[in-house]
Amino acid sequence: MNLEIENKAQIQEQLCTVYFDGACPLCSKEIAAYKQWRGAERIAWIDASTCPESELGSELKRDAALARLHVRNAGGELEQGAAAFIELWKNFPAIAWLTACLSQPVTIKVLDVLYRLFLKIRPLWRKPSVTKNKVNPTAPSIPTRGN
Predict the structure, then answer these.
(1) What is the dihedral of CA 25, 33, 63, 122, to 10 degrees?
(2) Taking a C-beta distance cutoff of 8 angstroms, is the pair 19, 31 a contact?
(3) Which residue of 95, 115, 118, 125 lies most exposed, with the fewest beta carbons within 10 A?
(4) Within 13 Å, how many C-alpha atoms sit on residue 44's CB side?
(5) CA triplet 128, 89, 28: central angle to 5 degrees?
(6) Per-residue model confidence (pLDDT) at position 140
(7) How far is the C-alpha of 41 from the C-alpha of 35, rounded, in Å?
(8) Over the stretch 103-113, which tens digit does the pLDDT of each residue have?
């Protein structure tokens, strides 16, 4: 089997693609936990803080991917926020049964409000990015806060 056919088969086997902020320690811990669950092996995990821009796809920009969770389903549709979590959870047999209840429009709206509240405090946990001193490269790096 040639490499191109193998790659297409792997893509077809993937249930979804998750775009997360790997520079957020809390987010990274959550994703690490998900990766241990049955079903995770068929999910593509993309750290939006370090991946090449091309891995995000044409309709997802890095700042948006870092601002909140995004999930692209097997059909190529991009979900964000609470709807993205529900799309992700559908792929885990242990909790997939919950998603039928959570997928109701009213429930998604409530969960999205809660998620937006969380997003307001999430920057407190995000690792600062480091910028090299361009004037004097031998000077110590300058820490900056990301979003």
Answers:
(1) -50
(2) no
(3) 118
(4) 21
(5) 20
(6) 46
(7) 7
(8) 999 999 999 99
Place of tokens 């964000």: 80
Q: Are 30 and 81 in contact (CB under 8 A)?
A: no
CA distances 117 to 27, 57, 67, 77, 87, Å, are 15, 27, 13, 25, 20
Global pTM value: 0.74
Per the DSSP assignment, residues forming a β-bridge with 44 are: 17
How far is residue 82 from each of residues 18, 86, 103, measured CA to CA in Å?
13, 6, 9
Q: So what's the pLDDT on residue 127?
A: 60
Strand order in the sheet with 78-80: 43-47, 16-20, 70-73, 78-80
Tokens of 22: 């790997």
Beta-strand runs (E) in the chain: 16-20, 43-47, 70-73, 78-80, 129-131, 142-144
Helix 82-89 vs helix 105-121: angle between axes, to the nearest 10 degrees?
110
Q: What is the C-alpha to C-alpha distance for residues 81 and 69, in angstroms, rounded to an integer?
A: 6
